[in-house]
Amino acid sequence: MEDLETYQTPLASRYASKEMAYLFSAANRHHTWRKLWLNLAIAEKELGLPIPDEAVKQMESNLYLDRKQFEIAAEEEKKRRHDVMAHVHAFGVVAPAAAGIIHLGATSCYVTDNADLIFLREALTFLISKISIVISRFADFARQYKDMPTLGFTHYQPAQLTTVGKRATLWIQELLWDLRNLKRARDDLGFRGAKGTTGTQASFLALFDGDHEKVETLDRRVTELCGFQYAYPVTSQTYSRKIDVDVLAPLASFGATAHKIATDIRLLANLKELEEPFESTQIGSSAMAYKRNPMRSERICSLARHLMTLHQNAVMTSSVQWFERTLDDSANRRITLPEAFLTADVVLKTLQNVSEGLVVYPKVIERHILQELPFMATENIIMAIVKKGGDRQVAHEKIRVLSHQAGYQVKQLGLENDLIERVKADPYFDPIKEDLATLLDPKSFVGRAPEQVEKFIEEWVKPSLDNDESRGGIEGGAKAELNV
């Protein structure tokens, strides 16, 4: 564990969490390789291979690498041009009693691929905890603003009213699907196990003198020691790269969700109805001092687009794996897999920060409603006249003419919508003028939005987060602070 940061992958940027950065660091990768070699030795010893107790003891005592061991491995790799064998050598230096049995019967993918599966499982677990926090934060926001009317938008044009909280439930629902997908991917992961060079287990069969049962037991035991429920029944030299496709798919899908949420927030910021957090000393523009740019949401969109593209990379890599394996996947995956999780981690951290500091401007929202509500209320006005004995067709024509006149005021002259004043000035509408305040109450236009918010949170959000894993993340989740 010495000088941990020295050995972190360059992909572990300062924006990612320490847990995710360490998971994909060189320090953790090669520590995991050593645990895999130890588990292989333990299982082989249990099944009768002559592995000394001292060999196992020395391996157990040297699972973490220090700077010197990394230097030994680097020097060896320069000579051998093989990273796995370089680390076999480095492990043998500090565990000399085990030097002759480290990696016994295994191929390189025993450590590289099994380690990757371990990293994928742990990384998905990190994301599950973090997305649970984000869902919880947005649920609090939705409940707080469940009753606040706001303009709905279809085609980004003013439409029937909704509420600020109801709109947030649309974001939460997609996040719940992402939570489900991440769990499915994580819980479906298997282990490569001990399969040999082309997946036939021939080397292990030779070690155990043709005892097929022992070979199968070895595979099961190594899988068990590494904490997996099952091993893939058949593999080539590698585990199928289709597994990477299945794992990155929910990350890409989450990227789409995050992009949609952040885009909605950016559009609402333009309308001045809602803003992301903005520090008192923050500068929005180097030239325009008044600006409050939605830079967090823009960052989310930027990274989310990148996250979505990485899935396609996994699909293409899976499609070109020839027969039992090729090596053109290796360098690609060493970039793509860590990058996908580090990116998702940063997006979630930023999204959490945004969700914890959203600012709503009720007066702006109310003004926008009042600009559009008169047009939306025309049907209510017509029905009210009919109830008082009026003719629907006559009322419709009256409202149509007045609406066009008010529209001219708004669109051609840039003035306020004066439709209601025109209705009040027309004697035809005298029977309902005392009812106009009620007919124009924004809350009467939001339908069941408040009730939908409550029911959604109680019947969908709470049950999805009502488990030890999600609760642990939410209860232990500190407020997300961004350095920049």
From TrEMBL:
Alphabetical GO biological process terms: 'de novo' AMP biosynthetic process
SMART domains: ADSL_C
Keywords: Lyase, Purine biosynthesis
GO cellular component term, pick one: cytosol
Catalyses which reaction(s): N(6)-(1,2-dicarboxyethyl)-AMP = fumarate + AMP; (2S)-2-[5-amino-1-(5-phospho-beta-D-ribosyl)imidazole-4-carboxamido]succinate = 5-amino-1-(5-phospho-beta-D-ribosyl)imidazole-4-carboxamide + fumarate
EC id: 4.3.2.2
Record carries keyword S-adenosyl-L-methionine: no
Example of a GO MF term: (S)-2-(5-amino-1-(5-phospho-D-ribosyl)imidazole-4-carboxamido) succinate lyase (fumarate-forming) activity
Domain Adenylosuccinate lyase C-terminal: 373-457
InterPro entries tied to this protein: AdenyloSucc_lyase_C, Fumarate_lyase_CS, Fumarate_lyase_fam, Fumarate_lyase_N, L-Aspartase-like, Pur_lyase
Pathway note: Purine metabolism; IMP biosynthesis via de novo pathway; 5-amino-1-(5-phospho-D-ribosyl)imidazole-4-carboxamide from 5-amino-1-(5-phospho-D-ribosyl)imidazole-4-carboxylate: step 2/2; Purine metabolism; AMP biosynthesis via de novo pathway; AMP from IMP: step 2/2
Subunit structure: Homotetramer. Residues from neighboring subunits contribute catalytic and substrate-binding residues to each active site.
Family membership: Belongs to the lyase 1 family. Adenylosuccinate lyase subfamily.
Name the record gives this protein: Adenylosuccinate lyase
